[in-house]
Amino acid sequence: MKKRFLATLLTATMSIAMLAGCGASGAASTSTAAANSSTETTQASGETKAAAEVENLGDFTMIVGHAQPEGNPRFVSMEKFASDVEEKTGGHVKVTVYGNGQLGTEKEMLEQVVQGTVQGMRGGQFDFSPRLLMFTAPFLTQNRAQVTALLQSDLAKSVCAEAEESTGTVIINLCDAGGYRQFSNNNHPIKTPDDLKGLKMRTNGMKTIDLTFQEMGASTVSVPYADLYMGLKTGVADGQENPWVNVVGMKFYEVQKYFTAVNYQFHPDPFYVNASWWNSLPEEYRNIISECATEMGEYNDQLIDENSEAAKQEIIASGAEVYDPTEDELQAFKTAAEPVYKKMISEGICTQEEMDQMLEIVANAK
Known about the structure:
four-stranded mixed β-sheet, D-Maltodextrin-Binding Protein, domain 2, five-stranded mixed β-sheet, alpha/beta
């Protein structure tokens, strides 16, 4: 069904939007009016020329998928991206966004991007770019300024640049996938690392999540994001970890009793685009899309910051229990996770030099 839908989608005929230039008219009776008229004519002439140049660049279709539901910061910011690109290209780059996993799981969507079946996807899927995992070291950052400094660093740009050679994709933006991630489960409150012992915790297959839970005595089970609600409801997993906005968006609080505000990790949110399609675009369109992607990422992070506390309060209002650890309790979680750093290096997720770079970036962030 999905394949037939996608095939139909990809063969649909896209309409061409035309731009019309406008010029200034009217004679001026004074030197000031003449100057104003001249300025308006010059600006209008420039706009007409720019419009004509854009119109002659051709028409392109960009299909993008992601897994988040309506109302989630990723969903909202992607709608802004689509609107901005169409406006700034005069409708000559038509962006269609399919959220809520309509095109498959995150891994399936990324495979489609690599194959060129769709042009782009956004999501914390690192199977094809495992080096991005270095930014998910537990308790690496404490605030938005540190997260932004990491994601905009030369180190992050270097890691993103590796994607084209290794996967045939271009990462055109790297923002926050949802905010700091929290623990939850159905068995009992998690107030110390020992409370995780014996629990079966869901992961998305990311090595740093597995390592963190295992250091605290939990076992892990990989469950796709779209299947997580039912996996928690049926006991496939006792618990999970996600940001507050994701918990509310997917209604995980309906199938989880106990939450802990541990803020242990954030995930980068790469925007993957098929490299062949990207390189086929005129440079002007690549510049416009890159600019829109940057604005999208900034808007996404702003939405996360504005909505995280409200989402947390919604979870509390639902009747679920949310525990805020004391400073000493939080330090116990950080101490328990410290061995993950050495394992990340030994398993090739990053080098010691890169780990030191990240710690330095975080320490200097303002």
